[in-house]
Amino acid sequence: MSATNSIVTLNVGGHIYTTTRSTLTSYPDSMLGAMFGGDFDALRDDQGRYFIDRDGTLFRHVLNFLRTTQLVLPEDFKELSLLEIEVDFYQIQPLIEALKGYKSRRCEKFHTFDVVFLTFEPPHSLSVSANTKELEKTVKDMWMTLQEDEESEDKDSAMTVLLG
User: Fold this and answer.
1) What percent of the chain clears pLDDT 70, i.e. is strictly above it?
2) Are 22 and 63 spatial neighbours (Cβ–Cβ below 8 Å)?
3) What average pLDDT is seen over the chain?
4) What's the pLDDT score for residue 27?
5) 77: number of CA atoms within 13 Å, CB side?
6) How do 50-52 and 15-20 pair as beta strands?
7) How much is the average pLDDT of 111-140?
8) Residue 22 · residue 11 · CB < 8 Å
């Protein structure tokens, strides 16, 4: 087996991983590319394994990305902030971009509420701003309907909008 494709055993924060040097150097400009591409000597533990003083649990996601070029996280993944720190340390640019995309998709997925800003200025002026034009138009139309209702005896009535 050539040196570039040799098997490498890592101790990352106490977690043991086995992979190939070519996997670790697949992004030469990354921290792992520098460590295992010969740019500097890597520290070894007492068993001769390469030692990286980082979060060993989260490293599995970094290593899986190196193997597949895909970022796949569990549905209930709750350590996104910690993973961002680790990804920043390893400086694998495609992984950084994949994590940004994941965060963006996750925010869209959990965006379940529409946002409306209402500013009421007496006597009967209402300013509406919403996160979608459709919602803004709906709220304005509701307000106009209330204004046109001449039968209302309560001139100080309020409008309540429930969104879901």
Assistant:
1) 70
2) no
3) 82
4) 96
5) 18
6) unpaired
7) 66
8) no
Q: Is the peptide bond before 94 cis (omega within 30 degrees of 0)?
A: no
CA-to-CA distance for 41 and 25, rounded, in angstroms? Answer: 14
The model carries a pTM of: 0.64
Statement: residue 19 has pLDDT above 80: yes
Confidence category of residue 4, pLDDT binned at 50, 70, 90:
low
What's at 90, amino acid-wise?
A: Y
Q: What are phi and psi of 153, to 5 degrees?
A: -85, -20
Q: Coil, strand or helix: which one is 126?
A: strand
Q: Which long-range contacts (CB under 8 A, 24 or more apart) does 112-118 make?
A: 112/164, 113/163, 113/164, 114/163, 116/161, 116/163
User: Which stretches within 25-154 are classed as H helix?
Assistant: 31-36, 56-68, 80-90, 93-110, 133-148
Cα 143 to chain center, whole Å?
38
